[in-house]
Every structure is written in C-alpha cells, then in structure tokens.
C-alpha cells in the first residue's frame, strides 16, 4: 500500500472518530435536556439547540420585517440572525439605508422615517410552533449597553394585542431586567403585571458577561417567571382575564415564541454612546410539558 493511501486512510479514520465523538456529545446533550426535569413530570417536546452553522432552522423560525413596534430605531431583517459555534447570534448594526416604506408627511412612524439608522432581527415561531402551558427555557447572554432592548417572549395565537396576551420571560432595558405579563384592560389598553430586577443588584457588568437561564412555568393556575431559578414574577391566571374582548382568555390558548434585539424606542433608551455591531447570544430554547 502506498504512502499516500495510508495517509488517506489515517485521515478518514480520524474523521470518523471525530464525527462519532461529536455525535456522541450531541446525543448526551439531547438526552440530558430531555431528562432534566423528569422528576417534576416534564418531558421535552420541542427545542432548538442552534448547533448547525448557518441560517436558523426554517422549520422553527420566521422573521419580523421592517419597523414594527414601540417607535424602536431598528429595521428588522432576517440577515441579522445566524447560527455559529452552537449559538444563535442576533446582531444589531448601525448602518444607514433608505426606508422602502417611506411616505412624505405620513402620520405613521413606520413610514415617515426617510432613513434606517440601525438594523437587527426578530425571530418568531408564529404559524410554525406554538404551545399551551409548559416550561419554556432559554439560555442566553445579553449586552447591557445603553439603548439595547433584548427580549425572549411569547404572544397568543388568537386575538389582537393585548387581548391575545403577552409574556416577557426576559426583557432588558435601562439597567433592569423585566418579567412582564399583559392582558387587555379597560378600553383595550394593556393591563400589566410587571416586576423588575436591577442589573446592579444582580452583579452589573460581571453578571452580564456570563450566560444565564430564563424560564417560564405556565399551567392552568399561574405563570411564574425566573432567571437562574430566582423567581421574579408569579401571577395567577384568574387575575389575567381580559377586561376587553372577554371572549378570549389570553393565557388559556397557545402561544408562540419571539427572540429579538431592539434598539431605543419607547423604553430602550439612547444608544448614541453604545458600540455597534452588538449582539444577543442564545445557546438554546426548549419547551417542556407535563
């Protein structure tokens, strides 16, 4: 057998060992995620581990597009989201583009901005994946620079906002974490059940440099929101009925997931001194049910 042939065989054998090792590690991770909460009666029903480099899985995610809500500064576009080294990266960029929806003298803030100054991404499972009740979990790392507004949240599949219900499992802006739940109050305005936690109290920049686990436990009795097993908000479903559009209970229906990195707007603050590009990193998103 020639020297080159022996080298090729060695390389193929090494490649097979590497692939087998990687496959074994992935299987162990998947088995762990499935069995993690078995003692509490939970079984993994859906997950995205973001282990394949490239675009996020189209079976799980679509994207919001354009200017969407809250007078935020970013233009949402799918190209600002990608998977790399086992992480979903949602990248916020400072870049100027023309607003294709611009209309001179429009009263709609989405259309009266001539230019786009920032871009980012919002991934959603709407019309692809949705669940009623369960344990929703995300491991991620957020940047706490001024003007950034990352979020891991859900919306109900039926009804107009806020009657469809909103659950902010993780939301950050202006030096605080928020754990929010909203239904429809009188005259259709949102009725908020909110709790906040100071980033300084959690550990400030040192805390934000690490990955953390945000979790929601949602059943027919209540919604509980956590960060690293620290309970931030627990609200009974009996308090969350709609005062407006009473035919829909916002949290006795399926919800879909959203992951986004917003900039500025009504709550995000001023990003002018923040370094761009910036990013929200997600290790995994998992849904368990009993």
Overview of this protein structure:
This protein is of the alpha+beta class and about 290 residues long. It has helices at about 5-35, 200, 205-210, 265-270, and strands spanning about 45-50, 60-65, 75, 80-85, 85-100, 115-120, 120-125, 135-140, 150-155, 165-175, 175-185, 190-200, 210-220, 220-225, 230-235, 255-265, 280-290. It is built from 4 helices and 17 strands. The strands form 2 sheets. Strands 1, 3, 4, 5, 6, 8, 13, 14, 15 and 17 form a 10-stranded mixed beta sheet that branches. It has a 7-stranded antiparallel beta sheet with strand order 2-7-16-9-10-11-12. Belongs to the glycosyl hydrolase 16 family. This is GH16 domain-containing protein.
Write down how many β-strands occur, each being a DSSP E stretch of 2 or more residues: 17
Encode the helix/strand succession as letters.
Answer: HEEEEEEEEEEEEHHEEEEHE
| Average predicted local confidence, pLDDT | 91
**Helix count?**
4
Oligomerization status of the protein chains = single chain
Helical residue percent? 10-25%
Per the principal axes of the C-alpha atoms, what is the gross shape?
A: globular
| Main sheet specs | 10 strands, mixed
Structure classification: alpha+beta
Round the Cα radius of gyration to an integer and report it.
Answer: 21 Å
The low-pLDDT segments are 11-26
Distance linking N and C termini = 59 Å
């Amino acid at each position: 057998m020639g020297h080159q042939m022996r080298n090729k065989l060695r390389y193929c054998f090494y490649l097979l060992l590497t692939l087998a090792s990687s496959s074994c590690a992935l299987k162990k991770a998947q088995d762990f995620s499935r069995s993690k909460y078995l003692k509490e009666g939970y079984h993994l029903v859906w997950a995205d581990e973001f282990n394949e480099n490239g675009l996020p899985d189209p079976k799980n995610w679509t994207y919001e597009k354009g200017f969407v809500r809250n007078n935020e500064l970013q233009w949402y576009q799918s190209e600002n989201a990608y998977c790399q080294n086992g992480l979903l990266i949602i990248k916020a960029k400072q870049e100027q583009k023309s607003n294709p929806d611009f209309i001179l003298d429009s009263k709609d803030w989405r259309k009266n901005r001539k230019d786009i100054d920032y871009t980012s991404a919002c991934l959603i499972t709407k019309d692809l994946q949705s669940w009623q009740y369960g344990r929703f979990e995300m491991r991620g790392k957020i940047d706490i620079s001024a003007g950034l507004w990352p979020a891991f949240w859900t919306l109900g599949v039926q009804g107009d906002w806020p009657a469809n219900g909103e659950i902010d499992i993780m939301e950050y802006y202006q030096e605080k974490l928020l754990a929010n739940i909203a239904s429809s109050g009188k005259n259709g305005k949102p009725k908020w059940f909110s709790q906040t936690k100071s980033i300084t109290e959690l550990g400030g920049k040192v805390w934000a440099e690490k990955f953390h686990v945000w979790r929601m436990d949602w059943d027919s009795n209540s919604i509980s929101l956590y960060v690293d097993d620290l309970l931030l908000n627990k609200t009974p479903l009996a308090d969350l009925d709609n005062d407006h559009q009473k035919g829909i209970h916002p949290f006795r229906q399926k919800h879909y997931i959203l992951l986004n990195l917003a900039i500025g707007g009504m709550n995000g603050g001023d990003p002018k001194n923040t370094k761009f590009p910036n990013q929200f990193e997600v290790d995994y998103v998992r849904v368990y049910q009993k």
